[in-house]
Amino acid sequence: MDPSGGEIAVEILPFIRTYKDGRVERLLPTDIVPPTLDPTTGVTSKDVMVDRETNVSARLYLPDLASLGPSQKLPILVYFHGGGFCFGSPFWTLYHNHLNSLVAKANVVAVSVDYRLAPENPIPAAYEDSWHALQWVVSHSEGTGPDPWLAERGNLSRVFLAGDSAGANIVHNMAMRAKARIEGVVLVHPFFWGSERMGCEKDRDDKPLLDPVTTDLVWPFVCPGAAGSDDPRLNPMAKGAPSLAGLGCARVLLVVAERDLLRDRGRAYYEALKGSGWGGMVELFETKGEDHVFHLFESGCDKALELFQRLAGFIRRE
């Protein structure tokens, strides 16, 4: 029993707790910041409504235009935040700062998607919202569309998808669904899982941010009644999953961290993609000595800056 008197239904510590009376308690502090002109990077942001029916919105980012030509077009980056499909927000300080840095380094117009969260909105809500946001982005054309930043500055022939953890999982599922207009995808510490333990998921002496027992709880919580941890949306390498040869992009950057519980799932995805017959180019980048999404919490450290440079270089084709 909870001291407040409510009976706990599900608890996934230290992230979220639900009660049998329907209450949902998200346990990690998430300070929300408004859009603004960032004085450090010169990046400007604003919030837009993507779908009024579902109340899905996004935060848009535009780099400092002082050094750009008056009609210069920029790549478009559609970003999906992490948080196990049940917490997190593009308006959270961690993600707002991350996008400011990434937009400045990569010189892109970015769209950070505020998809609906489980358990109030179970899977597939996050996927459907993300797909609608992507369709909203590509509905723009030169000089026309719902948003002037995308219409006037976005290069619709150079669209990228990126995300971390559950957001990287969303990126994979969007790329499997997409058939055109995506140049590249970036999967940072992707949340892939399965019923069979592999590699670093077994017999850990250290204490990574994620642990197998807790991770086993996430998918049934956000997607009740589904096919379990071998659902192809969660385990792209599961028996019977759609072939990765159908990935709808030309380039992939797969990022893993040495101490991350999800590391070997990411490595397995990299090998499976290379062997699938997919005709694109895939790169694997591993950060030594670091854990899951370390770059969000230690954004100023040398390894985080190295990661930012790698992401930006991928978009700039360096």
TrEMBL record:
Pfam families: Abhydrolase_3
Signal peptide span: none
Catalytic residues, chain numbering: S165
Listed Gene3D superfamilies: alpha/beta hydrolase
GO molecular function: hydrolase activity
Matches recorded under PROSITE patterns: LIPASE_GDXG_SER
Residue ranges occupied by any Alpha/beta hydrolase fold-3 domain in the UniProt entry: 77-295
Name by which UniProt lists this protein: 2-hydroxyisoflavanone dehydratase
Organism: Cocos nucifera
